[in-house]
Write a structure and sequence with these properties.
The protein has 11 helices and 3 strands. It has 280 residues and is mainly alpha-helical. The protein has 2 domains: 84 residues, Orthogonal Bundle (Arc Repressor Mutant, subunit A), CATH 1.10.10; 166 residues, Up-down Bundle (Four Helix Bundle (Hemerythrin (Met), subunit A)). Bound molecules: zinc ion.
């Protein structure tokens, strides 16, 4: 298990070395991806000497990389333990959700007037592909539900990014991307702990119920339509509802006592099956 984790991290580092500027940047980016992908778990200790030996570099770029990650909140320094991967609790998760709720409609508001036909077509193409993929998953022949969900996690963020990018505000976009990656990571970690079986259902088991995903994809269509019509108010309202609905459900299921942002009652149904809308 330990070996597997190390191999995973090396992969991330090697991938990132090609495109990054300095060695410290490359190591920071590789570790960042490993953390966000869940290859490094909550609370895992990152020792400078180990990392330096593993990647055959001095401690200097390692220390610099860890400082960058600490600045992003992905790792933290703890007395007597050193640098560890930050773990997020239900409260953190809710904070991320609330920030998404504030910042994503803001970005969309700036972006809408500037969205080109190409931008809209690119966002539409992501949905076309997801809908086709869902139809295949429903037959149970080519894709399992888990495979669809994994792929859609990327597709979902690709769709949202395609709409927000036109806002042209790099800090806002970087922050939103970071929040989405943290959100997805937290979800993955929680699912790994809470319901591993849901992540890897038996091969060949088709989707039992495609309704939940059909709903999610329809919400994206509605947001896209409002963007095409340059109806900022409607697009922002649909987006808020979309983020709230799925995030809220996750916070409620994971977090126990939670004041629903939709104002719904918080009576969680015990034993109800967890189904994750990776990415709302
Ligand atoms: Zn979405």
């Amino acid at each position: 298990m330990r070996y597997k984790v190390e191999m995973d991290i090396s992969g991330y580092i090697q991938q990132s070395t090609r495109s990054s500027q300095t060695l410290a940047d490359a190591i920071a980016e590789g570790l960042r991806q490993a953390i966000l992908a869940g290859a490094l778990a909550d609370g895992e200790v990152l020792r400078q000497a180990d990392l330096a030996a593993r990647f055959q570099v001095s401690r200097v770029p390692i220390r610099e990389a860890l400082l960058k990650l600490e600045g992003d909140g992905l790792v933290e320094t703890r007395p007597r333990r050193g640098t560890v991967v930050t773990s997020l609790n239900a409260e953190d998760f809710q904070e991320i959700l609330e920030m998404r709720l504030a910042l994503e409609p803001l970005a969309l508001g700036f972006a809408i007037e500037r969205l080109t036909q190409d931008d809209l077509a690119a966002a539409g193409a992501i949905l076309d592909e997801a809908e086709a993929s869902l139809r295949r998953a429903a037959t149970g022949m080519d894709e399992t539900k888990a495979e669809f969900e994994t792929r859609w996690g990327d597709g979902n963020w690709g769709f949202h990014r395609a709409l927000y990018a036109a806002c042209g505000k790099t800090r806002l976009l970087d922050t939103i991307e970071n929040l989405n990656l943290l959100f997805a990571r937290h979800l993955r970690m929680r699912l790994n702990i809470v319901a591993p079986a849901l992540l890897s259902p038996p091969a060949g088991s088709g989707i039992q119920n495609t309704n939940e995903w059909t709903d999610v994809l329809r919400e994206h269509r509605q947001i896209l339509e409002a963007c095409k019509n340059k109806d900022t108010e409607a697009a922002q309202a649909l987006l808020k509802q979309h983020i709230t609905q799925h995030g809220d459900e996750l916070v409620r299921r994971f977090g126990g006592a939670h004041k629903s942002m939709l104002g719904k009652s918080d009576s969680g149904e015990a034993g109800e099956q967890l189904h994750a809308h990776h990415g709302s």
